[in-house]
Amino acid sequence: MKVLVVGATGGSGRPAVEALAGRGHEVTAFARRASAVFGDRAGVRAVDGDATVPGDVGRAVRGQDAVVVTLGISEPPLRVRLLGSAGTALDVRSRGTATVVAAMREHGVRRLVVQSSYGVGETRDRLPLSSRLVFALLLRPQIADHERQERIVRGSGLDWTLVQPVYLTDGDEPAALSRTGDVDGMRVSRRAVGGVLADLAETHGGYGRVLAVSGATAGARSGALPGLPEPVGENGGGPA
User: Fold this and answer.
1) What is the full DSSP assignment across 79-104?
2) Which of 96, 107, 144, 183 has a CB 3.0–4.6 Å from the CB of 51, allowing a cystine?
C-alpha cells in the first residue's frame, strides 16, 4: 500500500510512519520538517509542506491508497493556553484536515484515518471529572478545534475512522481499542497509538467508526485489535 502520514514528525506520527514502513508499505511522511527527520529512512519518502496549504497537500495525496492524519501542537499546553502557539496555528487540526479531505476528494483517495482525542464528540460525557477540568481550563481551544476536526471528518463522505486516544505518554503502555467508548485507564503510549493508526490504515471495511484507544489491561497484547476488519491484501501488503 501507499500510505501518507500527515503530521509525520509528531509524537504519534513518527511511530505510525515507522510501523507502516516496517511492514513494507510505501510511506510518504508529510510535515514542515519531514526531510530533517526521515530523509535517510529506507522505505519513507519525506515531503516538506504545510498541511493547511492546498498545493502542498494535493501533491502529497495524489496516488495514495490511504491517508493518516496526526496533526497537533507540540508546544507545552500551559504556554499555548496563556500565550498562544508560537509555531503552529491553534486551528491546525481542523484547517489541515479540511485541506486533506478536499485533496482526497480531488484525487480519488478514499481511506482516511484521523487521530482526535478521547473526550471529544460522543466520548465527551465519559471523561472523569479531573480530565473535564483540564479540558475546560487548559485545553479548551485545542479541544474545540478537535470538535471542528471531527465534524469535517464525519461530513467528508470518505471511508473514515476517527481514533480517540486518552492521555499520551512516552512510555510503553500497550493499546486497547473500544468501540463503545469504555477505556482501561487514561494513559497510553504514543508508540502504541502509532501502531493502531498503522493497523487501521491497512484495514478495509468498518468505516464511519470512532474508536477509543487506552492503555491495555494486564496481559493484553499491544497491537491486538479484536473485531477489526482484516488487513488489505495478504499480510496487509497490497490491495485486496
Assistant:
1) HHHHH--SSS-TTHHHHHHHHHHHHH
2) 96
